[in-house]
Amino acid sequence: MQKDIIGYGSFIEGTYGRKLPQLSAPDLGDTLLFYAGRYALKYLIKRISAETHIDTIWMPQYYCHFVKEWMHHEFETIKYYYVDPFEPESKIDWAQFKSINDLVMVNNYWGLKNTDIPDGDRPIIIEDHSHGWLSEGSLHSKADFCFASLRKTLPIPMGGIAWKPKASKSNITLYKPEIFDTCTSENPMNKAWDTIIGSMRLKETCTAHVQKERYLEQYMKGELMVRSIYEVYEVSTEHAAFINQYIHINFNSFKKENVDYALPKLITSNDFKVVQHATKASFGLLLAFKKEDALNDLKKHLVANQIYPALLWPKNDLTTTYSYLLNIHMDYRFDTTDLNYIISTINNWTTSNNQLHHV
């Protein structure tokens, strides 16, 4: 990592001049780029509804609350179903969906799930691979359609993708130009893009806390723009070119290597478990907590040591043993020196808290 840049984690702002490994372009089937994952999802729902009636849109209970709110603004027939987001082998109960005209959105949680698509009569299935771009599940999906928020993984300001998997049994084509909205003046996505990419450039050269506050403020301005735009616009040629230069980089190889390095060095905690899979690359170092207070305490400890984790989707009501998730970035920016620092910082907190449990 660039040692003069403040902090570990936060959004990905650059490549630091590293040569990153390209994958051979995977044959996903037909694909379309979007400005964010939510726009890809809305497009797919509108595309499907243009061909067939949709009774109910089902979304997983554990999901981004910002996208939930955004979706409720756009669609009236949304309901929720439960699947354990912290257990890679947990299965969806397909019997709860009674109509083949229901649309079920499933989530490849953290790139660790392979969704079992039922045979025979079943609802329409859209699969979200936002935390598992180019994972095994995304490359071999049998859903009708898939989408992903690319900016979760790639060093880009905005970007999403939708595709119709090669194994899809849907007779609906992906591209229908009239589904897209048209601009009467300048595309508002241009301003959102420029705002967020400006914040990325600020962070890439950030060496003082006052600069950090500037890039975070600018980043949030761009995020709020995205949350307030509901129209689905086609991605410009210029922006598509920017996204496409990163779209087939094997970012998962770094995550797998770094998480595999970190796991044996972590002290077992009474407060959290690591969400992991023996062979698959997880989105990051995923710590699932039993209690929100413990998560917040570790997060505070990490931030005090300039490690900035992501608290994923806290506004979800899960009545399970593990209900809260903290993601610590394990991407290509970090070398073993960085990883050792992150691990020792977590272990210091774990040791202290384990001792408290035994007092």
What does this structure look like?
By secondary structure, the chain is of the alpha/beta class. It has nine helices and 13 strands. Strands 2-8-7-6-5-3-4 form a seven-stranded mixed beta sheet, with helices on one face. β3, α2 and β4 form a beta-alpha-beta unit. The model has no long low-confidence stretch (mean pLDDT about 90).
Output the number of helix runs: 9
Mean pLDDT metric: 90
Please give the largest β-sheet: 7 strands, mixed
Total strands:
13
How much of the sequence is in beta strands? 15-25%
First-last Cα distance? 39 Å
Trace the largest sheet across and list its strands.
2-8-7-6-5-3-4
| Helix-strand sequence | EEHEHEEEHEEHHHHEEHEEEH
Q: Low-confidence segments, ≥5 residues, pLDDT <50? A: none
| Alpha carbon gyration radius | 20 Å
Shape assignment = globular
Residue share in helices?
Answer: 25-40%
How would you classify the helix and strand content by structural class? alpha/beta
Task: Show the helix and strand layout.
Blueprint: E1 8-9, E2 30-34, H1 37-49, E3 57-60, H2 65-74, E4 78-81, E5 103-107, E6 124-128, H3 136-139, E7 145-149, E8 160-164, H4 188-204, H5 209-228, H6 237-244, H7 251-262, E9 272-275, E10 285-289, H8 292-304, E11 307-308, E12 310-312, E13 324-328, H9 336-357
Parallel strand pairs: 1-11, 3-4, 3-5, 5-6, 6-7
Antiparallel strand pairs: 2-8, 7-8, 9-10, 10-13, 12-13
Helix pairs in contact: 4-5
